[in-house]
Design a protein that fits this description.
The protein is elongated and about 120 Å long. Helix 3 (48-81) packs parallel to helix 29 (871-881). The protein is of the alpha+beta class. Among the domains are: 83-232, Distorted Sandwich (Calcium-transporting ATPase, cytoplasmic transduction domain A), CATH 2.70.150; 331-376 and 649-827, HAD superfamily/HAD-like (Rossmann fold); 380-400 and 444-460 and 485-643, Calcium-transporting ATPase, cytoplasmic domain N (3-Layer(aba) Sandwich). It contains 38 helices and 34 strands. Its EC number is 7.6.2.1.
């Protein structure tokens, strides 16, 4: 069992074998390893170095990258494991390292220190044994959480006392759930065993930080990799992009081509050798061993030799280039200042770079509502008390209808509320004393309602300001203006703040005492029990003892969980008010109470103790006790808080819809609230026909309703439809009627799923993923309840919001606001997809160009397996001569201005469904590669292959000169082809494009101009120099390069003029509207049309200019982003340069 934390994958001793094993699990790497071994074992036409060196390069680069990442993890592990801690041993405090903590050790943690293991709290410097912690590093929640020790250990506040403690802690096996812990502590005192239950409130998690408490002592129960934090470490995403799947398909096709070429060559060789004069010519007599060898083995050997000869048609360097492109390209997202949120100081994060191009393929977006579409900043707006509806206006409650302050019945919302610290009006009395006829009874009802709000919560108050005041942390004379509330739920904080504004001020708790000021008068309530919130009950409760001795239950929760349990109060009126609140898009909660007799409370106390001390089925037993307690309630009323929409949510959703992306909202809110928010954010249109699948009770009822909805859609196929479905109905639909439900959903423009459990969200996404169309899905959310759907979707995006960091930690990408999704998809996603699609197609193209002449050459050398190229050229073709231009292209290419992509979301449709890697496009690039290869080979053959006057001394070109000529034309052509595909030129593009060609010439002159002593043969000595000395060779090179590229240019011109894509149309129309620079970044004079001349036509296709010379003009109506400092533009964009 590891007592220390370990995230690293490798050690010094196992790095090499383990990393090699992982890398050779990749099919292409394993294939080239086999080829390399074949070259070592049999006589092959090429040196083993030609396969071994590229393979070694790919393996080494990948190993260095993975080793560096693991080294960073190793450093992080050492920092955590080596942190000093204090442990109680032998009656004293001993300093040790975090990795040496054992289960059962008593650990001391001081203020602001991080807990080194999962500890059960034993005692603190406070008499009640409580402490405050913040779990921001675990779940992002910055509120202070209170943890309490059991009474028997809370008094043991010294090391000497703790050393005498005799206790046994029994708890469940380690699990990842941060909020679940079950155990019990058996304490032996004076020969008597005392059993106390342990729950999440007793457990201090590793990674959390101690706050507002001088020191605590805790016993370690989980250490090292068994802590909850370690169990929540996210393993690397195993998601695969559509591009990677297409790449594998293309590799299989090329593998078939390779095997076919090898079989054809082998058969033709033996067909040719059927004649005796070719089987054993006079100049190449066979040995006796060759004559007697097995023909089958010889056939297999020849087949393998041809396989080795042609194996470069499989581009091994494609994988390492794609990995580099994804890894380096991911930095552009983090560098993009348009995705930086200044208020929260958050920039976009990339947790996995494997899915960059998938951002350009999204067809469905599944989004959470609260905190994702909304701000998750709650503001109290209205409430219903005993059947009367109230609004807050200027910090006062005003009932619906004419009042002394308003002559109109329906009052509009105010846009802002007084801050919680602005409480100076409280001394004057309660703000709802607006009408003298309300009477004492009304005041009592209001007091009880807001006391329920002030007591039924888990809100904490920061005590930093009060450490030096009085004897305890909370004083009766505590000034309201000093209060600062912290809550895990923004709803709770908004409600407690609202109650404070209306005269019922929660001023803190001391141990089991909760202190509330009612109109300036301090009241102390003893907190007896907290019935924690859970998603199944959808409510929470507290049992308190009032100053008068009454035992009261206060309950707060969703109306669907509260109203059915109520037997008194204005139930019908409150239900109507709740529905009205929901229609306004407000979040609602109902408040109720119950008074216990002494006998009832004794029974409840006994049942709670039994359930909480149970080690088996504790949760089920607690659920039963909670249900027994939370019944026969008296309804007090309901609250309504507003969660404002985030900035530009409506515009973003509309842009997604224009891009052909369907948006589904998955939320846990009630359907009235969800529909209202959907309408306000543009998810649903006012003109849209809203279909509802709600409150279905049985499979048959659900099937009948789905059939009705399907018929309505067929009858009203002209208008747009939106669908609202709740969690209960969804469960029935997914259980028996998936096909019918999916048919309805596919014909709806927008779908809203409400009352959803987290696993239901994931199941819906799974259903869409496996549908016949296999669409690419994206899930975006901000809370822990969104993690399941984020991990299920093809692309998961976390919002770094107020509900914690679990969603961001478990996502593939993290952004600060929903509005950033548009640029992430329409600009980054578009660019990434175009870049990597071109990269993949170009790699296959240049390797076809590379190896096809080798295949054709066999027809002229009697299939003797003679290689056309020198082994050094074979090795360096993909590594040096042609690698950098495509890598830089795949990082910097912008085929259209980023602003155009963001302002015209319809352009996103052009790249959907993996169109740039369709079989048609793949066949075009492959055909282009074969045609260019034929021009290289036969052009060289017919132009200079039979010319006897090429050299000054009358010498003819040899086979190495011929092969070098083919190779030279090929390097220039494939590099020029990359230049032809490049639209956005920077100095880096110029450097690597023309530099690659220059490097080839310089290298060849250097390589062929020296006799290298370590080479077994000097085939290339003086070959390249002789080739360049021939005017005919230069003429042949220029003619063949021009012929290859001219055909491609003509096709591009023809397509642009007669069959332009939407992107090409946008490039051209921008010339006459606002942007005076086309995709080629070349500038045109004002008013010149696209077809002014053939010269201009060619410039639009192949003409290029530097970004520094680009002149853009913008019309006044065009949206211009003055703060666009995106790294994508490579330069600052401002109005003066446009």
């Amino acid at each position: 069992m590891w007592r220390w934390v370990r995230q690293q994958l490798y050690t010094v001793w196992n790095f090499v074998p383990k990393n090699l094993f992982e890398q050779f699990r990749r099919v292409a790497n394993f294939y080239f390893l086999i080829i390399f071994l074949v070259q070592l074992m049999i006589d092959t036409p090429t040196s083993p170095v030609t396969s071994g060196l590229p393979l070694f390069f790919v393996i080494t680069v990948t190993a260095i990258k993975q080793g560096y990442e693991d080294w960073l993890r190793h450093i992080s592990d050492n920092e955590v494991n080596g942190a000093p801690v204090y442990v109680v041993r032998s009656g004293g405090l001993v300093t040790t390292r975090s990795k040496n903590i054992r289960v059962g050790d008593i650990v001391r943690v001081a203020k602001n220190e991080i807990f080194p293991a999962d500890l059960v709290l034993l005692s603190s410097d406070r008499l009640d044994g409580s402490c405050h912690v913040t779990t921001a590093s675990l779940d992002g929640e910055t509120n202070l959480k209170t943890h309490v020790a059991v009474p028997e250990t809370a008094v043991l506040q010294t090391v000497a006392n703790l050393d005498t403690l005799i206790a046994v802690v029994e708890c469940q096996q380690p699990e990842a759930d941060l909020y679940r812990f079950m155990g019990r502590m058996t304490i032996t005192q004076q020969m008597e065993e005392i059993v106390r239950p342990l729950g999440p409130e007793s457990l201090l998690l590793r990674g959390a930080r101690l706050k507002n408490t001088k020191e605590i002592f805790g016993v370690a129960v989980y250490t090292g990799m068994e802590t909850k934090m370690a169990l929540n470490y996210k393993s690397k995403s195993q998601k695969r992009s559509a591009v990677e799947k297409s790449m594998n398909t293309f590799l299989i096709i090329y593998l078939i081509i390779l095997i076919s070429e090898a079989i054809i060559s082998t058969i033709l060789k033996y067909t040719w050798q059927a004649e005796e004069k070719w089987d054993e010519p006079w100049y190449n007599q066979k040995t006796e061993h060759q004559r007697n060898s097995s023909k089958i083995l010889k056939f297999i050997s020849d087949f393998l030799a041809f396989l080795v000869l042609y194996n470069f048609i499989i581009p091994i360097s494609l994988y390492v280039t794609v990995e580099l492109q994804k890894f380096l390209g991911s930095f552009f997202i983090g560098w993009d200042l348009d995705l930086y949120h200044e208020e929260s100081d958050e920039k976009a994060q990339v947790n996995t770079s494997d899915l960059n191009e998938e951002l350009g393929q999204v067809e469905y977006v599944f989004t959470d509502k609260t905190g994702t579409l909304t701000e998750n900043e709650m503001q109290f707006r209205e409430c219903s008390i005993n059947g009367t509806k109230y609004q807050e206006i200027n910090g006062r409650l005003v009932s619906e209808g004419p009042t002394p302050d308003s002559s109109e019945g329906n009052l509009s919302y105010l846009t802002s509320l007084s801050h919680v610290n602005n409480l100076s009006h409280l001394a004057a009395g309660s703000s709802f004393r607006t009408s003298p006829e309300n009477g004492t009874e009304l005041i009592k009802e209001h007091d009880l309602f807001f006391k329920a709000v002030s007591l039924c919560h888990t809100v904490q108050i920061s005590s930093v300001q009060t450490d030096s005041i009085g004897d305890g942390p909370w004083q009766s004379s505590f000034a309201p203006a000093q209060l600062e509330y912290y809550a895990s739920s923004p709803d709770e904080k908004a409600l407690v703040e609202a109650a404070a504004r209306f005269g019922i001020v929660f001023v803190g708790n001391s141990g089991e005492i909760m202190e509330v000021k009612t109109l300036g008068k301090l009241e102390r309530y003893k907190l007896l029990h907290i019935l924690e919130f859970d998603p199944d009950r959808r409510r929470m409760s507290v049992i308190v003892q009032a100053p008068s001795g009454e035992k009261l239950l206060f309950v707060k929760g969703a109306e669907s969980s509260i109203l059915p349990e109520c037997i008194g109060g204005e139930i019908e009126k409150t239900k109507i008010h709740v529905d009205e609140f929901a229609l306004k898009g407000l979040r609602t909660l109902c408040m109720a109470y119950r008074q216990f007799t002494s006998k009832e409370y004794e029974e409840i106390n006994r049942r709670l103790f039994e359930a909480r001390t149970a080690l088996q089925q504790r949760e089920e037993k607690l659920a039963g006790v909670f249900q027994f307690i939370e019944k026969d309630l008296i309804l007090l009323g309901a609250t309504a808080v507003e969660d404002k929409l985030q900035d530009k949510v409506r515009e973003t959703i509309e842009a997604l819809r224009m891009a052909g992306i369907k948006v589904w909202v998955l939320t846990g809110d009630k359907h009235e609230t969800a529909v209202s928010v959907s309408l306000s954010c543009g998810h649903f249109h006012r003109t849209m026909n809203i279909l509802e699948l709600l409150n279905q009770k049985s499979d048959s009822e659900c099937a009948e309703k789905l059939g009705q909805l399907a018929r309505r859609i067929r009858e009203d196929h002209v208008i747009q439809h939106g669908l609202v479905v709740d969690g209960t109905s969804l469960s029935l639909a997914l259980r028996e009627h998936e096909k019918l439900f999916m048919d309805v959903c596919r014909h709806c423009s927008a779908v809203m799923c409400c009352r959803m459990a987290p696993l239901q969200k994931a199941k819906v996404i799974r259903l869409i993923k496996i549908s016949p169309e296999k669409p690419i899905t994206l899930a975006i959310g901000d809370g822990a309840n969104d993690v399941s759907m984020i991990q299920e979707a093809h692309v998961g995006i976390g919002i770094m919001g107020k509900e914690g960091r679990q969603a961001a930690r478990n996502s593939d990408y993290a952004i600060a606001r929903f509005k950033f999704l548009s640029k992430l998809l329409f600009v980054h996603g578009h660019f990434y997809y175009i870049r990597i699609a071109t990269l993949v197609q170009y790699f296959f193209y240049k390797n076809v160009c590379f190896i096809t002449p080798q295949f054709l050459y066999q027809f002229y050398c009697l299939f003797s397996q003679q290689t056309l190229y020198d082994s050094v050229y074979l090795t360096l073709y993909n590594i040096c001569f042609t690698s950098l231009p495509i890598l830089i292209y795949s990082l910097l290419e912008q085929h259209i201005d980023p602003h155009v992509l963001q302002n015209k979301p319809t352009l996103y449709r052009d790249i959907s469904k993996n169109r740039q890697l369709s079989m048609k496009t793949f066949l075009y690039w492959t055909t282009l590669g074969f045609s260019h290869a034929f021009i290289f080979f036969f052009g060289s053959y017919f132009l200079i292959g039979k010319d006897t006057s090429l050299l000054g001394n009358g010498q003819m070109f040899g086979n190495w000169t011929f092969g070098t000529l083919v190779f030279t034309v090929m390097v220039i052509t494939v590099t020029a082809k990359m230049a032809l595909e490049t639209h956005f030129w920077t100095w880096i593009n110029h450097l690597v494009t023309w530099g690659s060609i220059l490097f080839y010439f310089v290298f060849s002159l250097f390589y062929g101009g020296i006799l290298w002593p370590f080479l077994s043969s000097q085939n290339m000595y003086f070959v390249f120099i002789q080739l360049l000395s021939s005017g005919s060779a230069w003429f042949a090179i220029i003619l063949m390069v021009f012929t290859c590229l001219f055909l491609d240019i003509v096709k591009k011109v023809f397509d642009r003029q007669f069959h332009p894509t939407n992107i090409e149309k946008a490039q051209l129309t921008e010339t006459n509207s606002s942007i005076k620079c086309l995709d080629s970044m070349c500038c045109f004079s004002e008013g010149e049309t696209a077809c002014a001349s053939v010269g201009r036509m060619l410039e639009r296709v192949i003409g290029r200019c530097s970004p520094s010379h680009v002149s853009r003009s913008w019309s006044a109506s065009d949206p211009f982003y003055t703060n666009d400092r995106s790294i994508l533009t490579l330069s600052t964009m401002d109005s003066s340069t446009c």
